Amino acid sequence: MPEDEGVLPYVYRVTKYDPADRDEHGNYTGAEDTISDHGQVEGAYLQAIAAFASDTGVERLAVREPHLPVPFVSFGLEPPMDGFGLDGLFPTGPDGFHDGAEVSVGTAMDLVRIMLRDGGAWCRLEVEDTFTVHVGWDQYLYIGSSRPCETAVARTRALGLFPGRIDASPYDFEPEDEGPQRPADDEFWEHLRWSMQWDNSRVLEEQSAYNSARWHRVTPDNLDTVRAGLAPRARLAIWPDLSSDIDAVLATLPAEGHVECVWQDRDGRMHSADADEDEFPELATRLSDASAAMILPMDADERVPLLAAVLPDSDGVVRARWEIDPTPSTRKWAFLKTLHRGAIITGRVTRISDSWVTFVDIGGFEAFINIPELSWRPVRHPSAVAAVGQEISAEILHVDPIRERVSLSLRALHEDPMPLLAGRVGQTVVGRVTKLVPFGVFVRIEEMENGFEGLVHNTELGDGHLDQPQLGVQVGDALPVKILDVDPAQRRITLSHRQAVSPGQDEPGA
After folding, report:
1. Is 490 helix (H, G, I), strand (E, B) or coil?
2. What does the DSSP 8-state code read for residue 130?
3. DSSP letter for each residue of 369-437
4. DSSP class of 183
5. Cα–Cα distance between 364 and 335 in angstroms, integer?
6. CA-based, 20 to 30 A from 143: which of 69, 300, 404, 471?
7. d(C-alpha 241, C-alpha 325), whole Å
8. Backbone angles phi and psi of 19, in degrees to 5
9. In contact, 311 and 305? CB cutoff 8 Å
10. What is the pLDDT along the chain (510 residues), one digit of tens a residue?
């Protein structure tokens, strides 16, 4: 989440209400209508905005936190406007009403007119650290500036309005939560693509304004096309795929309550509708032409998508101030972002799988340690090194945010003892045979149970005349061997029994 813009030093509450008709908090207490007159007063408000913008030196403003009315609910005291009054304001149509959209002062005034008339659309109009225009529900304007705007204040009074200096706008943005703000960057899309290798489709919910969503059914084939068509700074939620069993979908409707239904018609178009128990019969009728559908709860605690993110700007920075839906995947992503290769982390062993992988809880996330990373020495089973419930420290080897995996190394925190064996090259020791293989035998050359083992190749086992020289050797036998080579990088030790029992026969001049 980016830091909030600082409070501007000059903030004015501009109203049409005489101070004599306001209480100690500035709230209007008179009998005048708190809706726009569509005429002289409304025009005065717009001229005041133009005056403050001119004094501040502002020519363009950005739309922030755009809102549209809740579907099927009348907004405000005036009749709803067609297209919420946005028709003709943006080159791309109402879809241009998104966070970060830049508009001229003239278009900003048109947006303020819509808000004064309770047309349904609402937003903050801002220039970062320079200028803000916020419209209150009761015909109060809150104009903030980096400059005192004395000329604009005088002009506002001349227009018959009442400007008053206040500390801050009550409509300043205040984040509700400091949760993780995941960007819908390349990593996010690769995660989504990877997740679809088992279930070929997902449903993508795109919100470019509060209370307004577009739905897309995405597959690996159309994912890039859908991504390219998303509105800037949109909030995204990824849901499981639709079901083609419409009867089964309808069977999930609750006995009472409010739900959202999302469906795809037989022409491939996506639709959504909110409904309560009284509207379920009509919803069932609408689904008769659906090819696939799903029911989503309206309760925020139950409405948990698979993934959630916000589209960043072209420079990769997330500037939209949406509150991200809390999902397990988002929490994992936020935790993984705190991890770095080579860092030391402490966790508790949770389980040891049949594949001999040790799993470790690190702050609520389960990382894993493969057998080679448990110890520098041979490990027959992880239980010889770690036990369930044991607290261990390990080094982070790799963090994979796409597959949500973290691999650890226990041995990385200890010195490799194998290089010490390099000083014993040429020595003869008596080791214990641990394994017979077609090309030779393995011999443990250290007395400890997990001591290093080396290979005695068939050519170094007998006198070279036996077809199967290892026939006379059994697992557990004590076998004299000469250490020929130690390669720590390849974890390889080369031994010779033949040279151990016939010393000097391979020496130069022998």
Report:
1. coil
2. T
3. E-GGGT-SS--S-GGGT--TT-EEEEEEEEEETTTTEEEEESGGGS--SHHHHGGGTT-EEEEEEEEEE
4. B
5. 9
6. 69
7. 18
8. -55, -25
9. no
10. 334 446 899 999 999 999 999 888 888 898 888 888 999 999 999 999 999 999 999 999 999 999 987 654 333 456 666 777 788 898 888 889 999 999 999 999 999 999 999 877 999 999 999 999 999 988 999 999 999 999 999 999 999 999 999 999 999 998 776 677 899 999 999 999 999 988 889 999 999 999 889 999 999 999 999 999 999 999 999 999 999 999 999 999 999 999 999 999 999 999 999 999 999 999 999 999 999 999 999 988 889 999 999 999 999 999 999 988 889 999 999 999 999 999 999 999 999 987 788 999 999 999 999 999 999 998 888 988 999 999 999 999 999 999 999 999 999 999 999 999 988 999 999 999 999 999 999 999 998 888 999 999 999 987 654 555 556 789 999 999 999 999 999 999 999 999 998 876 555 544
Reported for 395-398, long-range contacts at CB under 8 A and 24+ positions apart, including other chains, are: 395/342, 395/343, 395/344, 395/345, 396/339, 396/340, 396/341, 396/342, 396/343, 396/344, 396/345, 396/367, 397/341, 397/373, 398/341
Place of tokens 């389980």: 351
Enter the tokens of residue 478: 């004590």
Element (H, E) at 212: strand 212-218
Angle in degrees, 0-180, between the axes of helices 105-116 and 40-56, rounded to the nearest 10: 140
DSSP summary character for residue 323? P
Cβ 342 vs Cβ 395: under 8 Å: yes
Residue 273, both tokens: 């509708």
Q: Looking up tokens 């577009």, which residue turns up?
A: 214
Compute CA distances 425 → 479, 480, 502, whole Å. 17, 14, 17
Q: Give kind and range of the element (H or E) at residue 275.
A: strand 270-276
Pairwise CA distance, residues 261 & 240, whole Å: 13
Sole residue written with tokens 């557990």: 476
> Sign of torsion, CA 333 337 340 345?
negative
Cβ-count burial 120-131 (b if 16+ within 10 Å, e if not):
bbbbbbbbeebb
Provide the total of helices (H) and of strands (E) in the chain, helices listed first. 10, 24
Neighbours of 339 (CB within 10 A): 17
